[in-house]
Amino acid sequence: MKKTTYKVLISALLAGFAGTAHAAGTLVYCSEGSPAGFDSAQFTAGTDFDAGANNVFNPLVQFPRGETLAAPALAEKFEVSDDGLVYTFHLRKGVKFHTTRYFTPTRDFNADDVIWTFDRLGNKENAFNKAYPVEFPYFSDMGLAENIKSVEKVDDYTVKMTLAKNDASFIQTMAMPIGSIYSAEYTEQLLKDGKAEMINQQPVGTGPFVFERYQKDASIRYKANKEYWDKSDMPMVDNLIFAITKDASVRQQKLKAGECNVMSYPLPADIDNLKQDSKLNVLSNPGFNVGFIYYNTEKKPFDSADVRVALDTAMNKEAIIKAVYGGQGQLAPNPMPPTQWSFNKDIKVRDLDVEKAKELLTKAGYPDGFEATLWSLPVQRPYNPNGRLMAELVQADWAKIGVKVNIMTYEWGEYLKRAKAGEHDIVMVGWTGDNGDPDNWLGNLFGCEAVGGSNYSRFCYQPFQELLVKAKQLNNQEERAKLYEEAQVIFHGQMPGSPVGTSVVNVPLTNNVEGFKISPFGAFQFTGVSVK
Q: How buried is 153 (Cβ within 10 angstroms: 0-12 exposed, 13-18 middle, 19+ buried)?
C-alpha cells in the first residue's frame, strides 16, 4: 500500500546553534484571568490552554509559533494510508517528562504515554476516568470520540491510529491542545495514591516550561525545561510568570511600569496610547476570531428561526463595532473570519431594520415581543473587548422591538459550565480558531456533535449537518470550500447565533522583549522569547 510520509528536516547546524543558547532572566506575562485548571483536555478556553497545553505539554504534531500548518512534534514523522483511515506515528526518542517536586520520571516518553492519553479521552471505562470523572468537550465536539476507532502500540516508538471514516482535518486537529500527551507513569502514580484529581492542579508534560506553583487570581510560576527536546525553539528565560490581572487598565499600568513584559488583550481605546510609548512595542495581526451572541434554540421563543433573524435584524451592529471594538474591529457576516479559507464573501451583514424585525416577530407569534435574559461576557476576550457594554447596546436595540432583556453574568468558569449545560436564553461567547480548518468553526460551534460543548446555541439542523459531514470526509480543498460556503448560506437563514465582530489582535510588549510571535490561534507561547 502506497503511503505519504511527512517529516520535518531540521538542519544539524541550526540545532547545534540553538543548543548552545542558555536561558537567562525572568519573563512576566500579564494574563487576563485564572485558569479553570491545567488538565487542558477538559477545557475549551484560551486562558486554560495558555496555562497548561501551550507551555507545559506537547502533542504528537503541533503548530510552530506563528504558523497555521501542523508539523511533527512528539512524533518526528507520520504516514497516512491511501484511504485516509490509518495514521502511523513514529515517535521521537529521548524526550523527557518533567521532573517536579511531586513527580520524578523513571523513563522517557514512549508509545505507552500516547496509548494512555487517548484511552482516557475515548474510554469511559478507563480506571482514571472512574477515579476522576470529567468531560472532554473538544474530543466529543470535533467527533473524535466517534471517529477514532483504535489506537494501537506497534512498538515502543510507533503508534497506529485507525479512523472509522476519513477526516480531512485530522492532523490539524491533533495539533490542538486536545492532543497534549500525558505521562502514563505519572497518572499511574496519582491513581495509586488516590489523588487522580491532581492531574488538574499539578501538571506534568514534555513542554518547554515546567509548572512550579499556582496562586488563584494572583500568579502561576514556571521554570525553563533545560532538557526540552526542540533545540530549534528553546525557552530563553529561566523563569516564566503569569501575573494574573483581570482588569485591562491595570494590565496596561503594569506594562508601562515595567512590572510585566507582555500583556494580553489591551482595550481598543488604549492602542494608540500604547503605540506612542517609546518604551513599548505593539505587535498587531488580523484577528482569527468572531464574537457571537448565541440563542438557545432548545428554548422558546428561540426555537423559531424568524425570532432569531428578527433579533439579528434589530441589532445596530455598526454602532456596536464602533463603541465596543473601537478602531480595532470589523463586522462579522459569517460564523468564521474572512481570513479562513471557504469564507463566503457573498453573504453580508443584515441592514438594521426595526420594522422588518417587528414583522418577523409578529409572524412568529410574538407581536408584543417577549422577555429574556442575556448573559454578558464576564471577561475581556479577543473576540469581545467589552461584554457589558455590548450587552447594554443590544438591550437598547431589542427594546425597540418589544423584547425586554435582563442582563446577568457569572464568574468565567461557571459561565462556560452553565452555558454548555444550556441554562441560558441568550449568551455571549466567541471563538478564536484552533486549527485553521473550516470545520473548527461550523462543526465545532454549530454541529450536532458539539451540543453540550462549544455549540452554545444547541443547534442541530440536518440540512446544515449533512453538508458538514460530507465536507469533512473530502480531501479536495476546493470541493470542501463549496460545501462550507453553502453551509454558511443555511446558517445565515437560520441564524442560531448572531456573528457580531472580528477584532484585530494586539499584543503590547516592553522594548526589551525579543522573539515573541502572535499566534493565529490566540495562544500565548513563550519559547524563543527573551528579555534583554
A: middle
